[in-house]
Each structure stands twice: as C-alpha cells, then as structure tokens.
Amino acid sequence: MTSPLISPTSEGRWTPRLWGTLLVLCAAMFLDALDVSMVGVALPSIGADLGLSTSALQWIVSGYILGYGGLLLLGGRAADLLGRRQVFLVALGVFALASLLGGLVDSGPLLIASRFIKGLSAAFTAPAGLSIITTTFPEGPLRNRALSIYTTCAATGFSMGLVLSGLLTEASWRLTMLLPAPIALIALVAGLKLLPRSEREKDHNGYDVPGAVLGTASMLLLVFTVVQAPEAGWASARTLLSFLAVAALLTVFVLVERRSAGPLIRLGVLRSGSQIRAQLGAMAFFGSYVGFQFLATLYMQSLLGWSALHTALAFLPAGALVAVSSTMVGTIVDRFGTQRLIAGGFALMVLGYALFLRVDLDPVYAAVILPSMLLIGAACALVFPSLNIQATNGVDDHEQGMVSGLLNTSVQVGGAIFLAVVTAVVTAGAPADPTPQAVLDSYRPGFMVATGIAVAGLLITLTGLRPRRGRKSAEPSVVVARSTPKEAERVAVRD
C-alpha cells in the first residue's frame, strides 16, 4: 500500500518525498552497476599488490557474479515475505560494510569473500528496490517514468564506473573498492527516513524452505559451472557433470514449487507470453552486450594499445546517451508500448554490432567506433526500461518482489552464460602465431556470436507483435499506461 505522504498528487506531480524515495532506490542500483564496471580496470593493480594469480583475479569478478546471480530468486521472494523496506535497508548496510572490508584487506581470499558478500547484498537490494518502485508508483505513465529513470541510473553507474576506475586506480586500487561505501551509507540514512514502510505478506502459506534451498543451490551451481567452463573445458567431465547436477536440481525445484502452498516462484507467472518474452529478452540483451564489451575492451587495450581511461572514454557516449534520454523513455513507452520499443532497441543493437565488425588495426574512432556506441546506447535506453515495465505490469503487489528477482536472475544468468560462450568461441580460434591481425581475426567470430544473440532476442520479441485474433494489437499494458488511475482500474477489472 502506497503511503499518502509519498503518493503522487491528484495532478500526477511527484512530491519531494516521492522524488527522495526514487533517488534512494536509484542510488542502490547505481552502486550495483558501478561496482561491476570499476573492478575490471583495477585487476592488474590488485594482482601486483596482493600477489594473485590470473585464476585468483578471475574470482574477484566471479565471486560477485556468483553471489548476485545465485541468490536473486531468494532475494526477490524475501522482499515480498519479510517486507521490502526492511530487506532493502539491511542488504544496503551489508553492502556498505563489505565495500569497506574490500578496500582494507591485505589478503586475496578475504577480498574475494568481500566481493561475494557484496554480490549477495545486491541480490537482495535489486529486487527489493524494483518492487518498492512498482508498488509505490501506480501502473501506467507514472511507473513508466520512474522505471525509465531507475534503469538509466544503472547504465550511468556502469559508464561512470569505467571512467572512475581509470582515474582512481592511478592513485590506488583500494579507492575503487572503498568508493561505494560512503555512497551506500548516505543512501541508507536517507532510506531510513524516506522509504515507505511496507507490510509483510500476511496471507502467505508459510516459508518455502525446500524451494529456497533448491532454487538457490541450482542458480549458484549454474553460475559457478558457466564461469568455470572456459577454464575447465566445456566438454570436460567436471563441466558435464555440473550441468547434469543443475538439471537435476532444477527438475526437483519445479516439482517442489508445483506442490508448495507458498512457492518461491509461482510457476503460473510464466504462463504469460509477455512475461516469458521479458525474461528471455533480458537474457539475450544483457548477454550479448557483456560479450561485446568484453571483446571490444580487449581489442582497444590489447591491440590498439589504448589506456584504461582511453577505453572507458570510448564507451562513454553510449552511457551518456542513456542518461540524457532518461526523462523521455517513459513517455515513449506510453505511446508505443513495451514490445515495439524492445524490438526497436534490439534492431539498433544488431546494427551497432554489425557496424563494429568493420574495425581494423588503425580505426578512425568517429567514423568506425562512435556510430556503434551511439546505436548501442540508444538500444540500452529503449530496452532496459521497457523490459522492467513489461515484466512487472499486471503483477499483483505481493508478487512484485518475486518477479523482480526473476528478471534480475535472467539478466545475470544470461550475462554469465553468453559471456562464457563468446569467450569459448574466441579461445577456440586463438591463432598459433599471435600477430595483431591474426588476433583481431580471432575476435571476429566472437563479435558475430554476440550479434547472433541479439538477433535471437529480436526474433523472440517480434513474436509478441503479432495481433491476437479478435483483439487490438496494442498490449493491455499500453491501454493501462494511457489511462487515468480510475480508468486503469476499470480496465484491470474488465480484463
């Protein structure tokens, strides 16, 4: 239930407290994205200072992904059952402490442990924060605007993280670990005052402990297996047995959820074609982008000899375009609907990737790389807010945390899986004579795989544009988004 202190005015204007609530939630999402992008540039300095091997450095990144991707389902449902405000604030406090720990430790294992704890914390703040937005802002233009600003903060945090890491690492890698701590503490203090108090779900049928254990174990093992597969070998006994174990855990998880009175994930949610397209679209979009960025960063630094800061500035136009467009995306969604925007965004991303295939060993940035970055930025601006809106529209308040956790899980698992696939393709084509041109040629199949993943996402999205027989082609969410709150309520009842 939305508090009258933070509810929009009758004219639809946002109160100062409503803006404050959104800014607190945006700060947490900003930190999640910032933390992911900042650590990459600092890895060489961390390895030299702490004496870590390449495999150990990998776990500074993978530890965060493991905690984040493995516990999102549990985090989303915990927000519904234990209270969104409580879960968000506790997890944000743990995130701040883990950031402080990460900047002070002198041990590789402790640093990896702090990264895992930060990922675990983000697995609770992300779905809790998203569900606070969707239960505070009424479905329609107000929520669309809020979600467009919210998702824009993630893209802005990711872009700024690349630039800040290049600057901070020049002084000390520890600053990249410490920077999120004061921001998280400020957001925590503000959240204690501004976030609406949320009631726990009263009518739930107990806690689905078996489902929580099985769901968390299956996601942790899946992410761990995918992260380790390039090193262990995709066809190795270890990898195949791990995937078999994941399949067995997921099968048992589904059986448990079908029989549970209060499931961790209500499987009926996935009977909606719109929901399935949102989840698959999230996997394809983020997975293709992570694979592209990984290869593009290697190309710029290893082959062109660009510095970390130079590389970060090359990616900056994409993030800047997302930030500038934040206030407009909600209005565009109201007019055209989520499916059309997602399809348009995927088309722009495919074109951006295709243009990047023209790169050589002496590119003209403005003519070769910049057009791709602008197209990718436009795609992110359209797709990410639309995916969040599509996944959460029409979902009851008591299940918003669950759906938010499911969507974030799709994003993280998609990123882990498709990055591993792109890495495997490039590794398989590694040249025996690593001349610069031969290395660049070995990168091209990886770029083509990233493009193919985006094409698959586009095709999945296009299936939702087919008009249903006897109904208008516009989605119900579009009709709701164009309505006043009272009209939206009548539409919801009628549908």
Automatic annotation (TrEMBL):
<feature type="transmembrane region" description="Helical">
    <location>
        <begin position="405"/>
        <end position="426"/>
    </location>
</feature>
<feature type="compositionally biased region" description="Basic and acidic residues">
    <location>
        <begin position="484"/>
        <end position="495"/>
    </location>
</feature>
<feature type="transmembrane region" description="Helical">
    <location>
        <begin position="175"/>
        <end position="195"/>
    </location>
</feature>
<keyword id="KW-1003">Cell membrane</keyword>
<feature type="region of interest" description="Disordered">
    <location>
        <begin position="473"/>
        <end position="495"/>
    </location>
</feature>
<feature type="transmembrane region" description="Helical">
    <location>
        <begin position="117"/>
        <end position="137"/>
    </location>
</feature>
<feature type="transmembrane region" description="Helical">
    <location>
        <begin position="21"/>
        <end position="44"/>
    </location>
</feature>
<feature type="transmembrane region" description="Helical">
    <location>
        <begin position="308"/>
        <end position="329"/>
    </location>
</feature>
<keyword id="KW-1133">Transmembrane helix</keyword>
<feature type="transmembrane region" description="Helical">
    <location>
        <begin position="149"/>
        <end position="169"/>
    </location>
</feature>
<dbReference type="InterPro" id="IPR036259">
    <property type="entry name" value="MFS_trans_sf"/>
</dbReference>
<protein>
    <submittedName>
        <fullName>MFS transporter</fullName>
    </submittedName>
</protein>
<feature type="domain" description="Major facilitator superfamily (MFS) profile">
    <location>
        <begin position="21"/>
        <end position="469"/>
    </location>
</feature>
<feature type="transmembrane region" description="Helical">
    <location>
        <begin position="365"/>
        <end position="384"/>
    </location>
</feature>
<feature type="transmembrane region" description="Helical">
    <location>
        <begin position="446"/>
        <end position="465"/>
    </location>
</feature>
<feature type="transmembrane region" description="Helical">
    <location>
        <begin position="56"/>
        <end position="75"/>
    </location>
</feature>
<dbReference type="InterPro" id="IPR005829">
    <property type="entry name" value="Sugar_transporter_CS"/>
</dbReference>
<feature type="transmembrane region" description="Helical">
    <location>
        <begin position="276"/>
        <end position="296"/>
    </location>
</feature>
<feature type="transmembrane region" description="Helical">
    <location>
        <begin position="341"/>
        <end position="359"/>
    </location>
</feature>
<dbReference type="InterPro" id="IPR011701">
    <property type="entry name" value="MFS"/>
</dbReference>
<feature type="transmembrane region" description="Helical">
    <location>
        <begin position="239"/>
        <end position="256"/>
    </location>
</feature>
<feature type="transmembrane region" description="Helical">
    <location>
        <begin position="87"/>
        <end position="105"/>
    </location>
</feature>
<feature type="transmembrane region" description="Helical">
    <location>
        <begin position="207"/>
        <end position="227"/>
    </location>
</feature>
<keyword id="KW-0812">Transmembrane</keyword>
<keyword id="KW-0046">Antibiotic resistance</keyword>
<dbReference type="Pfam" id="PF07690">
    <property type="entry name" value="MFS_1"/>
</dbReference>
<dbReference type="InterPro" id="IPR020846">
    <property type="entry name" value="MFS_dom"/>
</dbReference>
<keyword id="KW-0813">Transport</keyword>
<keyword id="KW-0472">Membrane</keyword>
